[in-house]
Amino acid sequence: MRKKTGKVFFSVSSSTSSFSFFFLCVGIFFCMEMAMAQNRKTVPINVGVVMDMDEGVGKMVLSCISMALSDFYSSDHGSDYKTRLILHTRDSKRDVVAAAAAALDLLKNVEVEAIIGPTSSMQADFIIGLGEKSQVPIISFSATSPSLSSYRNPYFIRATQNDSSQVNTISSIIQSFGWREVVPIYVDNQFGEGIIPFLADALEKINARIPYRSVIPEFATDDHIKYELSKLMSMQTRVFVVHMTTSLGTKLFTKAKELGMMSEGYVWIITDAMANQLNSMDSSVIESMQGVIGVKPYVPRTKQLENFTTRWKLKFQQENPTILNAQLNVFGLWAYDSAIVLATAVEKSRITGAPFQKPNISGNATELEAFGVSKDGPKLLQAILNTTFKGLSGDFQIVDGQLQSPAYQIINVFGNGAKGIGFWTRENGIVKELNLRNTNNVYSISKAIFGTIIWPGDTTSVPRGWVIPTNGKKLRIGVPVKDGFSEFVKVTRDFTTNTTTVTGYCIDVFDAVMAALSYYVPYEYVPFAAPGKATESYDDLIYQVFLGTFDAVAGDTTIVSNRSQYVDFTLPYTESGVTMMVPIKDDNGDSAWVFLKPLTRELWLTSFCSFVFIGFVIWLLEHRVNEDFRGPPSHQVGMIFWFAFSTMVFAQKEKIVSNLARFVLVIWFLVVLILTSSYTASLTSMLTVEKLQPTVRDIKELQKNKEYVGYLQGSFVPGLLKKMNFDEDRLKEYSSPEECVDLLSKGSASGGVAAVFDEIPYVKLVLANHCSKFTTVGPTYKADGFGFVFPMGSPLVPDVSRAVLSVTESEKMVQIEKAWFGESTCSDSSTSLSSNSLGLASFWGLFVIAAVAAILALLIFLTKFMHEYWHIIKRTNLSFRERVRILARKFDRKDYSCHTFKKSELRDAMRDSARMDCSQSPHDNLSMLSSPRTNGPPSPSISSYTEQSFHFPGEVGTPPLHEENVAVSTQESVIELAVDLSAGH
């Protein structure tokens, strides 16, 4: 019995021990789990989302945000994150007040650390102010208005593209096709107005202007849209830039299609507000937008994006089964990347979601004063700005509070969607293929890069960008009314029928030019003058184009710079320039001195100096070696002038023995030959051909004599004359060719004018009938001729200018000129009546050659002479004056080393020897040869010593003395003798 009891007791004890061990293990495991759970506890961070939930875009964006957080926390590092974003969604209901109330609720009651949204720029304008006050970052991926700036609101983060960043892309497209006028069509709110100043500046840089701005209310009715489009149809501009929301834009293009504005000739460019959502539009809307050009931020196609798109479609279809064929656009991608950036920044900043710091306010404070200030806001803001990563939309980087985009894509709506036709980058402009690593900084705007573009009307022809207005009005062409020169423009009024007829050379040219255009332009001529009066000022006429009174001006209007400041001119169609017309006179009165006219005063003076200089050079080179160039001073001076001027007719008889002189004369004879031949030809022409000369030869003569000058009434010439310093009271105007002829015929002294300044077409018209009385003189002053006037920036100007070239180069222009001006029988007298005097400019090269030859010969002569008498020059015991005097004496003496003197001395010696043989006896000769010598050799006499000692260095023998060598002063002879002896002579 005990045994049994003991076994039972043992069994119970064993069971108790097992249960105790089990509970102990369970307790330890539970404690470990509690500790691990405590370690895995995350901090919830409240984040608000303000979105228009009743739109497909709002639902798409919300699903992208939730998927972003799911992907972020389920990633490989998701288990290590200490924070979790808790979304608090509010519906802004497409209303600014509702959005502001939703944000206020999130800040006051939920105390969110950040707000994602809102959808529109108008909603964001107020909410970012609340964010700044509460120091809560506001992250918007769809508020694109440039008026919203992070500089003014540092807590505003734009996770999308600023609208102003796409205007350069649009302007590059417009510039590449050469369109000169653009009409922006935009919604009448902060979103639409924000881009206009930047677009206007970009267009101004490419010389394109905005003639009209089409503003459409956000909730415009169909009738209002049709009225505004009809107004655009009546204008000539056909290039439109559309910047509005997708809902309003679809209505606009639908009505434009109904009105026929999506046909050939129109250009439609949409901004990224619509281009980003093309894939979510109905097919009927796409059908009405065929041929539209669009720009949108470039999103690279990656595998990550493709996988996310697939997952998003499945998730969105499950959550929204009533929405069919939903498409993901770039706003969803930006929302996804914004949520990733916010979650990353929250984790990096280690914020704890601490309660807001409540302000000290009174009990009657408003709702806007009741919410507090986030303690973690500044830290979170810096973390967001410093976060960069490669997201679904590309490289996500916030710079200056705004998302940076490397490029824009240019698309063309065609078929069921849009195709890419090019890209635009800030560095390279328009490119075919995008290469972000391209280091080539060449900026391109070539339209060839786009390839084939389908334009509205299903055409590939590039639209001209403008057409003649369809409002039924004709172009009003202003024409001047003239009293004279009716060959250019003539206005005839028939008061019985109350009609006006405009004819003339300028009118025929304008008609021919407009007919040469590739399209029809209706127009009518409107005279600019009061009834019965002439146009007083062409400047006033042209200014009417600037004021809009006329659409153009056709007439003899000259292209000048001050007029081009407010109007545009076509290319000129007449000869350009202003010239001076003066009377001509018989030149027989000056026939007594006509022999002086062939050469100008400068050439006469230069020739005289050259003759004297050459004569002097020849005398220097020949004086020591030629008897003809020696003698008394007066004889030598006369020889210089005689010899030089005798070469003019080759009448010199003196023989030249020096080679240097011969060299100089060869060159000089060439100069003389050319100069005399030219003089003879010019004099002959004057005596046989030229009999008439202008009464005034240049403007200086008019100004010096204070003569009266004339100009055509209404022209710009008076301003030109005043710039040339003509006195205003010396100017007289005329209005007809007859009056011009009368003024010139009277002359300045008899109440007329001495000269007339006018444009070449008018001058030619006068000379055509009076070429025997008047001629043109002086230079032609620059002017660009006659041109047609159009408003500044008119698209007609390029086409009309091309038509002007076509007409002026054709036979049509010749026919028009013959019809109005006939064929002149007068030759061009401007050349025959100009001065034929030969000037220095025609011969200075010859004089330079002669001078160089003479100077070279002189240098050689002086070098030889100085070398020969160098022993005198280097003597230091002689003064400079004494050395110069000795050298002058040496130069004045004959050079007996010359062959000419050797021959003459030999002939003289032979004659003396023959005379001595005949007169002397043999005894005398013998005594002279063998006289006795006592006490050594006899001393030579002073005379014989002098004759034998005073010779030049290098002389051979002892030449007999001549008179000029004997007449030397004793002092100079002694000095020369001492110098010669010291030199070894």
TrEMBL record:
How does this protein lie in the membrane? Multi-pass membrane protein
Which Gene Ontology cellular component terms are annotated? membrane
Under InterPro entries, the record lists: ANF_lig-bd_rcpt (IPR001828), GABAb_receptor_plant_PBP1 (IPR044440), Glu/Gly-bd (IPR019594), Ionotropic_Glu_rcpt (IPR015683), Iontro_rcpt_C (IPR001320), Iontropic_Glu_rcpt_pln (IPR017103), Peripla_BP_I (IPR028082)
- Ribosomal protein as a keyword of this entry, yes or no, is no
Location of region: Disordered: 912-945
Q: Which cysteines are joined by disulfide bonds?
A: C771-C826
Q: Where is the composition biased (Polar residues)?
A: 918-934
Transmembrane feature ranges: 12-32, 603-621, 663-681, 841-862
Q: Where in the cell is it found?
A: Membrane
According to its UniProt entry, the function of this protein is described as: Glutamate-gated receptor that probably acts as non-selective cation channel.
Query: What is the annotated quaternary arrangement, including any partners?
Result: May form heteromers.
Q: What is this protein called?
A: Glutamate receptor
Q: What is the lineage of its organism?
A: Eukaryota, Viridiplantae, Streptophyta, Embryophyta, Tracheophyta
Designated gene of the protein = GLR2.7_0
